[in-house]
Amino acid sequence: MRQSKLFTKTRKEAPKDEVSLNAQLLIRAGFINKEMAGVYSILPLGLRVINKIANIVREEMNVTGGVELQSTALQKQEVWEKTNRWSDAVVDNWFKTKLKNGSELALAFTHEEPMANMMKNFISSHKDLPVYVYDIRTVFRNEARAKSGIMRGREFFWKALYSFSKNEKEHNEYYEKAKIAYKNVFDRVGLGEKTFMTFASGGSFSKYSHEFQTVSEAGEDIIYIDEEKKIAVNREVYTDEVLKDLDLNKEKLVEKKAIEVGNIFSLGYKFSEPFGLKYKDEKGEDQFVFMGCYGIGISRLMGVIVELFNDSRGIVWPEAVSPFAVHLLSLGQDEEAEKIYNQLEEKGIEVLFDDRDVRAGEKFADSDLIGIPWRIVVSGKSLEKGGVEIKRRNSQESEIVAVDEIISKLR
Ligand code: ATP
Ligand code: MG
Question: Which of 263, 294, 301 should be mutated for ligand 1, with most atoms under 8 A from CB?
Fold first, then answer.
């Protein structure tokens, strides 16, 4: 993409009311635009990152046997009354609205009820199970606090998967697969080393749920980590009995602030019972479907990655989620740079080509702020030295590489 066509501009300052580092950097670099507290437009650069994260999530969900669908944002009262979750006293973060005829609707904050209700149309026999459906979409929550930038939005982008199994045993097998898929997602987006599977409160069908918590000073949760076993316990369930449980040595646990990037939850019959979601087993007897749900905060992940990977000059994207692989800067050498741009594009390498007519200093500062992993500078000086100057965003060193060796260098 040509930077001259990218309408966004970098900014020296973030809005004064923006207190979180992730949103400050993402706004300054032109990835998001703040509409109001907790509500951000995703700009072209940001959308490329979101799409990369979403595709990694999609691939890993597909490996587990997940099938993608698109749910609705508008939800009806009747469905939520079945589980007593329509009431604002029970769910305090609903956004509600009305139809012209006066009946009430809400904007989706999650989809357990609509999914259980919808699946009644498709599940009737043991042959229809198991089913794993997932949805990548925007959801809405009237969060009381919106001080964590895109890590806590009032509208945000997530993946939610709902599992429908014949029984607890079949559910547990899937649950274990989901743990592996989640680990793969967080490894692939670059957060693996700092992300811990964390025991959290379970609800009526299992003692624990599992959260995936990424250690960060900007986090809103406190977890206790066993660094050898690579697991943690959320403060909300942290008691002596639980630790004995889990066979953790208290002494060794390290207390850290962390942010929840995903969670997996056994729901049991909590939703299938009120909706009458049943199937006939092999003997022809009615059984309730055993459900689970599995969330990943995709837009939150973009924020967490920025919180973890930045320096005084800007963002430092991990390669797998960077908006582009290469930032190509032309310093008065547009013809030569144009050739290189076309070559890289032909090879399928994603390039942001800074073809703007601005000062070199501005190009360098913008490049550091935007944070693409590889920078290639084409200047009179570099050509005199025999090629282009290549530098990684996270390194001080640059080197001169001959034009026809650029591609092998990048690989
Ligand atoms: P939290 O404790 O942070 O409020 P939650 O328990 O409400 O999270 P879930 O309802 O299980 O989270 O949602 C699944 C995932 O969606 C979370 O693990 C998190 O990554 C993400 N998420 C939840 N709330 C928000 C939000 N307001 N903004 C962005 N992402 C969110
Ligand atoms: Mg919440």
Answer: 263
